[in-house]
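In the design runs reported in the main text, the only information available to the sequence generator was the tokenized backbone. The following block is the verbatim input for one such run; it is reproduced so that readers can re-run the procedure and compare outputs position by position.
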């Protein structure tokens, strides 16, 4: 079974891989010399499109991906139980430093999520100014909602040492609101660490009631970087 860990893909034009390695190792992360290379990877435009990049990419971001000539991969150490927020905080700061040091695009291989350069820097600034790091880390590292038939679900909560969330039979916008509300409740409230099967959940006092049930992560193989060893909370509409 894979212990959760971040893997980020960093693109640039004329990017100095030795400098990337030095910046990464100084921050406590691992540079992957096997897959990093000073040449373009033609798969990258498609890979970024599959990583929800459209939500925050500008024309300049797409041009940076299309014109890149260097690819670097950086890994966190395996995330020990409860250490996800700290590791994720350090990696968001590192991502901003890389973008300010010549990198032009970044995506995360452990959740299938990319942001545009300005959005990455905005989230890193929000993190630096925040009293509670939960909100900027959630929006930086959790992809949602992903659609699978009648289910909408998140991917990336394992990087914050939490279960992911899935919603049954809801529209995309309703599912997104439910996922966000429950995830942030788990990340910010002590009570959110002690949820139980059959418990009810509402986005607000007058909102519809949903019922929680806990499930193992069987969507991904246990050696997949998307795999969440903490499982899922499933939200089903109360009948």
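Verbatim output:
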């Amino acid at each position: 079974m894979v212990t959760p860990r971040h893997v980020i893909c960093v693109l640039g034009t004329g990017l100095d891989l030795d400098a990337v390695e030095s910046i990464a190792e100084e921050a406590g992360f691992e540079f992957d010399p096997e897959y990093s290379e000073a040449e373009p990877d033609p798969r990258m435009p498609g890979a970024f499109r599959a990583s929800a990049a459209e939500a925050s990419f500008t024309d300049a971001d797409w041009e940076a991906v299309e014109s890149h000539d260097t690819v670097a991969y950086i890994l966190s150490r395996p995330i020990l139980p409860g250490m996800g927020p700290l590791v994720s905080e350090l990696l968001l700061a590192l991502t901003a430093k890389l973008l300010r040091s010549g990198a032009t695009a970044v995506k995360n291989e452990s959740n299938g999520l990319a942001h545009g350069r300005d959005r990455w820097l905005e989230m890193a600034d929000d993190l630096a100014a925040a009293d509670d790091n939960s909100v900027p880390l959630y929006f930086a590292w959790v992809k949602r909602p992903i659609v699978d038939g009648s289910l909408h679900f998140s991917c990336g909560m394992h990087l914050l040492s939490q279960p992911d969330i899935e919603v049954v039979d809801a529209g995309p916008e309703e599912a997104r609101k439910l996922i966000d509300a429950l995830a942030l409740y788990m990340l910010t409230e002590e009570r959110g660490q002690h949820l139980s099967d059959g418990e009810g959940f509402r986005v607000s006092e007058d909102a519809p009631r949903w019922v929680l049930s806990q499930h193992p992560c069987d969507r991904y193989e246990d050696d997949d970087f998307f795999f969440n060893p903490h499982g899922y909370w499933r939200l089903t509409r109360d009948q």
